[in-house]
Write a structure and sequence with these properties.
This protein is of the alpha+beta class. It is built from three helices and two strands; from the N terminus they run αααββ. Strands 1-2 form a two-stranded antiparallel sheet.
Length: 88
């Protein structure tokens, strides 16, 4: 398994912490899973800002992460549009 520091982030602070989030997210997506900001896996993977981590994967690591808008219920049960991410 790769070390967290081998999957850096574009953020200028918390390189080790955010690099670990990038790695966990990449492994989750690589396994064929999908994720969005209200997905329970976001908490299990300990990812703070999902959109930023996906941006790191796309822009810094050139991983072909795909996205689309879907409608889900937010924490109050109201429908809202969010981006869903996956890797083919």
């Amino acid at each position: 398994m790769q070390q967290a520091f081998e999957f850096p982030t574009a953020a200028p602070i918390n390189q080790r912490k955010l690099g670990g989030q990038n790695l966990r997210l990449y492994e989750w997506l690589k396994a064929g899973n999908r994720i969005h900001v209200f997905h329970p896996a976001k908490r299990e993977l300990k990812i703070g800002y999902l959109n930023s981590r996906c941006s790191d994967l796309i822009n810094k690591h050139h991983i072909p992460v795909k996205s689309r808008f879907i409608t889900v219920n937010d924490i109050d049960g109201n429908p809202t549009d969010v981006k869903e991410y996956w890797i083919d």
